[in-house]
Design brief:
Chain A has 2 domains: about 130 residues, Peroxisomal Thiolase, Chain A, domain 1 (3-Layer(aba) Sandwich); about 230 residues, 3-Layer(aba) Sandwich (Peroxisomal Thiolase, Chain A, domain 1). In chain A, about 40% of the residues lie in helices and about 20% in strands. Chain A is built from 14 helices and 11 strands. The longest helix of chain B has 6 residues. By secondary structure, chain B is mainly β. Classes of the chains: A alpha/beta, B mainly beta.
């Protein structure tokens, strides 16, 4: 297998982008990545999108976006693993470059979520759960994570305040990210007093509805070296699955797919949790970040809540988590999230993260999750 | 809206709690499966769920999906039945503050929601407090 490097990244300001269509958002973003890489053609492209069908009534977006990006007749593939679609787009692109099948691949993700109303968005997101045996009973997406949160609180003594501190930390980080949807601070009190969505989770425990895209260009490391690019190599990848119904898992508080994906990525990269300088994780809900830090092995089982309370995962902590603001503050256009994590880690490893730069960052990790943990994709990047 | 076939084919599970089990692994599957994920055994035997269990986690849904909007807020939990099977469903006929992890419940046949004015009335199981 060939070594692979990220040579271009692109992301525009995320939010409720009423004036822009899915194709506009995507093309603007992908062009930034092409410009950043200094190229104008690609060999292949992957697009992560959870549900363009339900959100904008448009399937077959791979060809549509290849066309509007001016790249016809390049092979274009849309991939879907719910909210982990973006991460999977990178993994498939990585395989294509590492295998020698292609040299320059665009790995990207997009979701246009505000063309539908709240009920339809709730429905679309809910399809990531088991429609016949979870959705049918009236559970919602926040509801699923609320079930995990209650079980975690019962088993490990995780507190309501600890959950709130995840959101407070991520908003604090997002304040320094000009592309974030919500650039403002929140307090623990504000989270605790915000509107209840699915007890014990409130609205400020939840990531928002967002329009946005993200893009990364990858190529063989040797080619990147010749182009004189800062060498940000993707040294590890992992992808695993679990039951999509929470009730069918042996331990509802444990994200086995994330654990398995991380295990693969650590082994491939020959790294351990203590070698990682920063991590972007899938904090779709505050409890998710707590469970993910446990599954990635950066804290012990059951200690995720204590870790955030002690500041271990803060910007100035031992291992900064979600320096971009995470899904909570940056926004969560579901299919784009996994690639946006790669954009953030690449910026950090290049030393281009501005006010939120982690000092001497050399190894970064991304963790992107689908549904309530039924799929997970992990990558490890390193600056050579 | 889906055709009635999608609803109709789930009736054995939702109305009659039909499950199946792998006698080699002593595992029960709900909904029934075509093979045992542990030992890949395809000769699974029909069985029926026990109707008593306990709450192992729960939430109160305040922002519901559209077809449940007339019911919110309502409680949804994961219940572990006496035969070890776990399933998700609403917990009803009790105050929210009385719901506790470990609370004993039993399954009852109830209406869950309506598919609009002319659509199907959707039935299935809900959990109600039992004993104590």
């Amino acid at each position: 297998m060939r070594d692979v490097a990220v040579i271009g990244i692109g992301m525009t300001k995320w939010g409720e982008l009423w004036k822009k269509s899915l194709r506009d958002i995507y093309v603007e973003t992908a062009l930034l990545a092409l410009e950043d890489a200094g190229i104008d053609r690609i060999d292949s492209m992957y697009i992560g999108s959870m549900s363009s069908g339900l959100f904008v009534g448009q399937e077959h977006i791979a060809s549509l976006l290849a066309d509007y990006l001016g790249q016809l007749p390049v092979p274009a593939t849309r991939v879907e693993t719910a909210c982990a679609s973006g991460g999977l787009a990178l993994r498939l692109g990585l395989m294509e470059v590492a295998s020698g099948m292609s040299n320059i691949v665009l790995a990207s993700g997009v979701e246009k979520m505000t063309d539908v109303g709240g009920d339809e968005a709730t429905y679309a997101l809910g399809t990531a759960a088991d429609q016949e045996y979870e959705g049918y009973q009236g559970i919602t997406f926040p509801g699923l994570y609320a079930l995990i949160a209650r079980a975690h609180m019962q088993k490990y003594g995780t507190t309501r305040e600890q959950l709130a501190k995840v959101a407070v930390k991520n908003h604090h980080n997002g304040l320094k990210n000009p592309l974030a949807q919500y650039q403002f601070e929140i307090t623990v009190e504000a989270v605790l007093n915000s509107v209840k969505v699915a007890d014990p989770l409130n609205i400020l425990d939840c990531s928002p509805i967002t329009d946005g895209a993200a893009a990364a260009i990858i190529c063989p490391a040797d080619m990147a070296r010749k182009m004189g690019k800062p060498l940000i190599k993707v040294i590890g990848t992992g992808h695993a699955t679990d039951t999509i119904q929470i009730s069918q898992r042996k331990d509802m508080t444990w994200l086995e797919a994330t654990y398995q994906a991380a295990k693969q990525a650590y082994a491939m990269a020959d790294k351990k949790p203590e070698d990682i300088d920063l991590i972007e994780v899938h904090d779709c809900f505050t409890i998710a970040e707590i469970c993910v830090t446990e599954a990635l092995g950066i804290v012990d089982k059951g200690k995720g809540g204590e870790a955030v309370e002690a500041g271990l995962t803060a910007m100035e902590g031992k291992i900064p988590v979600n320096t971009s603001g995470g899904l909570k503050s940056k926004g969560h256009p579901v299919g784009a999230t996994g690639i946006a994590q790669v954009v953030e880690v690449t910026k950090q490893l290049r030393g281009e993260a501005g006010e939120r730069q982690v000092k001497d960052a050399r190894v970064g990790m991304t963790q992107n999750m689908g549904g309530s943990g039924g799929s997970s994709v992990v990558h490890i990047l390193e600056r050579e | 809206m889906s055709t009635p076939s999608r609803y109709w084919r789930e009736i054995p599970q939702r109305y009659r709690l039909e499950a199946n089990k792998c006698n080699r692994c002593e595992l029960t599957f709900f909904p029934p499966r075509l093979l045992c994920p542990e030992c890949k055994n395809r000769k699974l035997e029909k069985s029926k769920l026990t109707e008593k269990g306990k709450v192992i986690t729960y939430t109160i849904i305040r922002v519901p999906p559209a077809q449940f909007s007339d019911q919110a807020p309502y409680a949804v939990g994961i219940i572990e039945l006496e035969d070890g099977v776990r399933l998700t469903g609403q917990i009803v006929d009790c105050a929210f503050e009385d719901i506790k992890i470990g609370m004993k419940v039993k399954l009852e046949f109830r209406k869950l929601f309506e598919e609009g004015h002319a659509g199907i009335l959707c039935y299935g199981y809900k959990f109600v407090p039992h004993g104590e």
